[in-house]
Write a structure and sequence with these properties.
The chain is α/β, with parallel strands linked by helices. It contains 12 helices and 15 strands. The strands form 5 sheets. Strands 2-10-9-8-7 form a 5-stranded mixed beta sheet, with helices on both faces. Strand 5 and strand 6 form a beta hairpin. Helix 2 crosses helix 9. The protein is globular, with a radius of gyration of 22 Å. It binds pyridoxal-5'-phosphate. The site of pyridoxal-5'-phosphate has 14 residues, from helix 4. Pyridoxal-5'-phosphate binds next to helix 4.
Length: 414
């Protein structure tokens, strides 16, 4: 007989300790809001513009993969053709490697998760920047590491002197760095800092996780900077992704690591998903072999550079005095620091009311007072001709908030 007991309070199972008190990420909530309001002008998420996806070429590659090879729909080991194409892509960026050092993942996020699980025991120390990509914190949370924070110079990247001092006291499991298009700061790591970081990693035998989804988007007129993996093949574990340069929905990323690490990474990956999506791997291998990536990335780079310039100009015209922002030479983000009396989490609520979204600073630097008045703006995901209006709206709201600097300036629902 069915039980007639009704509970007025939901009975929950015992959760693992790390999950207790864990709320859905601010980012996930925002995705929900943006998804429910298709007309919102969003500078919030670091998503590429869907209008620029290479749909015809990807569609042709997927269709021909299915038509010509039934194994495109079979389970299978990481596709050698795709690993070979990725090795060639890396060589074009100055990184000497071959397919035996390339490990395929479901996006860069899975790569970070696998590397974290491979390297970190609970309580072990890891080095991250004070302001950094929240996905790294997410990947680390179940492992409960000890965080060693290093500041970042907004002009040239991680404070390598602070790192050196730290490494003289402790041997962390890894150093997490974004060399180009830092998310959220938009900064590129200076060449001299790249060299020093690699020297420190070698000297202290601590691997660098170089997270590089944005390195293909460099906007300077000189030669593009090579990733740190070009300087060392033993202590730099490179993480790449097709999410920004092709499409994030494909969920394909990669790690370039010393060959002896590849079987260990396979063990960690098998725990959760056995094999990646074979069809997408076949399709991407064909897309790359056809030479479709380079012209597509050139188009994106040109377009994103113009959007960056549109955003920088609009910030100049509309943000209140006392606001400063980064001038990114790579990537998709501008980081703006507003006057300290402005709480950007509250400002976001007002901005959404007016149809504009951005990301407030706190998810990138939990606990930092400065981040409370900062915001990340993605210039890549919305059309160039809408950027001016969106920044003007944010600027007007920020100016109003300055005029009423107390929490009572909350105007939610007003
Ligand atoms: C710095 C950084 N690393 C990793 C990722 C995850 O990317 P993917 O879509 O390849 O999982 C992102 C996504 O925005 C990112 O900004």
């Amino acid at each position: 007989m069915a039980s007639s007991v009704h509970y007025s309070v939901r009975v929950q199972p015992y959760f693992a300790n790390w999950m207790c008190g864990n709320e859905p990420q601010a980012l996930r909530k925002l995705m929900g809001i943006v998804g429910r309001r298709p007309n919102i002008l969003s500078f919030a998420l670091g998503w590429p513009d869907p209008a620029l996806f290479p749909r015809a070429a990807i569609s042709a590659a997927l269709v021909s993969a299915i038509d010509e090879n039934p194994l495109a729909l079979q389970l299978g080991p990481p596709l050698p053709d795709l690993r070979r194409e990725i090795a060639a892509l890396m060589r074009r960026r100055g990184v000497a490697c071959d397919e035996s050092q390339v490990f395929l993942t479901a996006g860069a996020q899975q790569a970070l998760d696998l590397l974290a699980r491979l390297l970190v025991d609970p309580g072990a120390s890891v080095v991250v920047e004070e302001v950094t990509y929240p996905g790294m914190h997410m990947a680390l949370r179940p492992l409960a590491p000890t965080y060693c924070y290093v500041p970042t110079d907004e002009r040239d990247g991680m404070d390598v002197d602070a790192l050196q001092a730290l490494l003289s006291r402790t041997r962390p499991r890894f150093i997490y760095v974004m060399s180009d298009g830092h998310n959220p700061l938009g900064v590129s790591l200076a060449p001299s800092k790249r060299r020093r970081l690699v020297e420190l990693a070698r000297a202290h035998q601590v691997p660098i996780i170089e997270d590089d989804p944005y390195g293909f988007f460099q906007y300077g007129s000189g030669d593009p900077l090579a990733p740190m993996r070009a300087l060392d093949d033993e202590w730099v574990y490179y993480v790449g992704s097709f999410s920004k340069i092709v499409a994030p929905g494909l969920r394909v990323g990669w790690i370039v690591a010393p060959e002896h690490l590849i079987p260990k990474l396979s063990i960690v990956k098998d725990l959760s998903d056995i094999d990646g999506c074979t069809l997408v791997q076949h399709g991407l291998a064909r897309f790359l072999a056809a030479g479709a990536l380079a012209p597509h990335v050139d188009t994106l780079r040109r377009e994103y550079r113009e959007r960056r310039d549109a955003m920088l100009g609009a910030l100049e015209r509309h943000m209140p005095e006392g606001t400063r922002w980064s001038t990114p030479q790579s990537g998709m983000f501008v980081w703006a620091q507003l006057p300290s009396t402005i709480d950007t989490t509250i400002l976001l609520e007002h901005a959404i009311e007016r149809g504009v979204a951005f990301l407030p600073g706190p998810p990138f630097a939990p606990g930092s007072r400065i981040a409370a008045s900062a915001m990340r703006l993605c210039f890549a995901s919305c059309p160039r001709d809408r950027i001016e209006d969106g920044v003007a709206t944010i600027g007007a709201l920020a100016t109003q908030a300055l005029d009423r600097p107390t929490p009572t300036a909350r105007m939610v629902g007003a």
